[in-house]
Write a structure and sequence with these properties.
The structure is a homodimer. By secondary structure, chain A is an alpha+beta fold. Chain A has helices spanning about 15-20, 25-30, 40-50, 60-75, 90-100, 105-120, 130-135, 140-150, 150-170, 190-200; strands at about 5-10, 35-40, 175-180, 180-185.
Chain lengths: ~200, ~200
């Protein structure tokens, strides 16, 4: 078993969503684990003085088209949600709380459910109620989830993750780290695939 | 014979250079022509209020690493030149003058020579003397090239190309247009390849 792939994403990122639909198969092919690590692109935008791709002139409309084309190519259901983008602090807190208390498998199920809810069924991933309902649908107690989202230790847990990602130089979604190698974007999943296959070049 | 691929690039763009080393083989595979269309990323940066990738914090160092990794993957000789980036107005003017007077085949030879000179041998593609020498090495009269670079009609020719690219929504390098389809980056050459193969999806 090789070292794990660190998979950084924001629940509001459509490219992150597309990556989430392909990373497990890629990792499985190489008998490799994936650490799912939601973080907050808002912190990146603040650090770099940038903003969401979709609201940029020219690049925004292009990315809208590119997302649809990419989704069709990989046969991934995808709709641009409304509202979009959204803040995903509650989603991130819920994820790490689930991971720490129920294990990474359930946390990943939650991430998939929240991502698909947002980018297929237009269920607002930025809405605390949607986050709680998504966890509840996986068998969690809604009151316990709601309490966790207000827990200072959980708040600090997400903040530490976000700070840690930024410290490592993570700046987009999806963003992968494998050993010393950093790979940004769905566009680099082919490099990641080849890196895992060959051991690097 | 299908419609041509419009291949937009800036002589100062390293990703444009990497694209230039792969686009002919891709097009040939599909029996497709390529229209090489140098333009000026500086005009894009001015329009969008952005700047060169390499000078952006975090993304700049990442792109430096990514360029080297991409070049090695495709077995393309590549060095980050110094100075970098540079203004490529003279190079663009020379290209269109060559294309209009000597034909697209020689213009493409010139483009390859200038790109390789810059990204392999550190010959400054932004330097008018280097532009003239590069054309001279292909058999052109240096005095005629030098005169062309100051010709108002050639100046206007490049400006029209740049304006036309911006009007179409071109914003990066390499940037491809095939029919109604726009594809940004070396990252989308796999989409372009598949699009040519399948007729789109």
């Amino acid at each position: 078993m090789s070292q794990p792939i660190e998979f950084y994403f924001d629940f509001s990122s459509p490219y992150g969503y597309l990556g989430s639909q392909r990373i497990d198969a890629l990792a499985e092919k190489h008998n490799c684990e994936v650490n799912w690590r939601p973080y907050l692109l808002g912190a990146v935008f603040k650090k770099l003085g940038t903003g969401p791709l979709i609201s940029q002139p020219v690049k925004g409309p292009y990315s809208h088209h590119d997302l649809q084309r990419s989704a069709r190519l990989y046969d991934i259901s995808f709709n641009v949600p409304d509202p979009f983008p959204v803040h995903t602090v509650a989603a991130g807190r819920a994820f790490y709380w689930l991971q720490d208390n129920e294990g990474p498998a359930l946390a990943k199920q939650f991430a998939h459910a929240l991502y698909r809810g947002y980018f297929i069924d237009n269920r607002n991933a930025g809405d605390t109620e949607v986050v709680i309902e998504t966890a509840a649908a996986l068998g969690l107690d809604p009151a316990a989830v709601a309490a966790a989202l207000q827990d200072d230790a959980i708040k600090a847990r997400l903040k530490t993750e976000v700070d840690g990602a930024l410290d490592k130089g993570v700046f987009g979604a999806p963003f992968f780290i494998y050993g010393d190698e950093q790979l940004w974007g769905c566009d680099r999943m082919d490099h990641l695939d080849k890196w895992l296959e060959t051991g690097g070049w």
